[in-house]
Amino acid sequence: MADITPPAYRSIPIIPKLIPGAMEGKGPFVATDKINEALGFPGHLVDDWHDKAIAKMGDLLTRFRSLKVYMDACVHCGACSDKCHYFIGTQDPKNMPVARQDLLRSVYRRYFTLPGKLFPKLVGARDLTREVLDEWHNYFHQCSECRRCSVFCPYGIDTAEVTMAAREILQSIGYGQKYSLEILGKVHKIGNNLGLPAPALKDTLEGLEEDVKEATGIDVLFPMDVKGAEVLLITPSADFFAEPHIDSLIGYAKVFHATGTSWTLSSMSSEAGNFGMFIGNYDQLRQAALRIRQAALELGVKRIVVGECGHAWRVAYSFWNTLTGVGDGADANDRFAQMLQKQLDHRYKQPAHICEFTWDMIEDERIELDKSANDNLIVTFHDSCNVARGSRMGDYPGGQFDIPRNIIRAVANNYVDMDPSTTHERTFCCGGGGGVLTDDLINVRVKGALPRMEMLQQVTDMQKVNFMACICAICKTQFTKVMPIYGFDRRMVGGVHQLVSNAIVLGKNK
Amino acid sequence: MSSIEVGGKSYETDEEGYLLNLSEWNAEVADYIAKTENIDMSDQHWEVVNFLREYFEEYQIAPAVRVLTKSIGKKLGADKGNSEYLYGLFPYGPGKQACKIAGLPKPTGCV
């Protein structure tokens, strides 16, 4: 890691000079036979990969009409080209979203359009060769599926779906990414991305009860597998394991405690993050989500609340309803989904984000806050991409931007926003989302963080910001890792509920 | 698969140098892996590595950073029971680097 130097800040955020081939390479580690087979994918690259890959592309084009539209609709206007953090940080022209998509689109044209079949050279159509396949593996893992470029696309092409399709083709022929697939295996086997078994989770939670008791004198509980609890909290397993994530977990527990809400975690479903979305595989996405339904049914909870996890909230907000029956919309014949619909209390939003929960409690004056506890901090907020562009909070458009900021302003006296061209729906990815948060892609991660680091530097210099709050486990881990390389203290990063935890006054239940 | 050669014996590792077979681990291998990470193993390093091994034996997973810092704090004094101390020992991050030296699998997920 010592040999990785961050790219220099741009004095004006202009389109960078192109360096063709800057990020050529082998891409991330390829999943082993064991990892692949556990998920039902071929162990390694199959002999007839060419035909299988084209057949898979055909299958996806038929099943997802959106993909076909995205393949056909692009007019190469270039509006997306300089909107990608990986392009900005790497200067590799193939990381312009339009060019990255064209790695797939060119093959689509060759095999699925008449001009491409007849006159491939004239329409930029390419045969699927081994080189093209390797290029897919490399460059489609330099996209974090953050969808910033989609905001600027006049046709509304969802570039993330193009990346997901490419990855789905790759893993269907035994050429998937080790990081994401290994993690999905752990979810199916153990219940979370870490592979944290129930006894270890229990031990960790008991330790937290001791810590909070020591710090506050109050018995704040971290319950696990409690039947009949009102709330099931589904949070990223990083919240149990990593710093600064665990401080937000303590924050959630304090909010539940202070409001007298009975809640529980589930040991068999102790993961919010759903890597099935990263790899674009519907079955994996659904299987991972179904654990949550199982836990909710077994524990008999009335509400499901999701912790600080960006991609989880996208899946929960956008897909849980039809996948699992958390929220309306599941198939009428899906017995368990209908059962869960009946069980949940529909006076509340299902699912709810922990920020929605906490903000409701603040508005209702159910918790007492001492803002001065955060007076040593000047706080800014990093909008996580999948919350910003893939979902919503509250009951009006843009609630996902206001609610976390409202919470921060309620618990801290000093708040400043970063440059508006990089916040709200135009936020930049941290550089580690969508399956990129792995050490074998550290070079991509460091470079992809550049635009966010530039804007953080600006508010650090001008407004003395010393804390960047996030609501995503990936953002927290990614920033903790890359910020020191840019010269920041890694303790500048933390969760919104870490700030809540600092400010909440316990022992005075209302 | 990759492998490392220590004391005339070969040990299988993954692409990043994490031991594949946990039971093959020994102090010599730990020293070797530490060197590849530019770490000179001191008593303080061993304190952490030994705790990781013990915890893993009981729970089949590396301890959360919080659990680790608390245990080190109890053993070595409160001033050492924090992640700054651990980052000082294992600059690439106590979670992953110390696990690698202790012969444990790499923690996965959003960590």
Mean pLDDT of chain A: 96
Largest sheet of chain B: 2 strands, antiparallel
Poorly predicted runs of chain A are: none
**Total individual domains of chain A:** 3
Q: Termini separation of chain B (Å)?
A: 25 Å
Please give the oligomerization state of what you see. Answer: heterodimer
Find the biggest chain interface. Answer: A-B, 41 and 24 residues
Characterise the protein shown here.
The complex is a heterodimer of chains A (510) and B (111). Chain A is mostly helical. Chain A has 3 domains: 33-176, Fumarate Reductase Iron-sulfur Protein, Chain B, domain 2, CATH 1.10.1060; 191-356, no CATH class; 368-505. Helix content of chain A is 49%, strand content 5%. Chain A has helices at 33-38, 49-63, 65-73, 85-90, 97-112, 114-118, 130-139, 148-152, 159-172, 178-189, 198-216, 238-241, 245-258, 275-278, 282-299, 310-318, 320-324, 335-343, 354-363, 385-390, 399-411, 442-448, 450-463, 473-482, 496-503, and strands at residues 231-234, 263-264, 303-306, 352-353, 368-369, 379-381, 467-470, 493-495, 504-505. Chain B has one domain: Arc Repressor Mutant, subunit A (Orthogonal Bundle). Chain B contains 5 helices and 2 strands; from the N terminus they run ββααααα. In chain B, a hairpin with a 2-residue loop joins strand 1 (2-6) and strand 2 (9-13). The chains are: A mainly alpha (510), B mainly alpha (111).
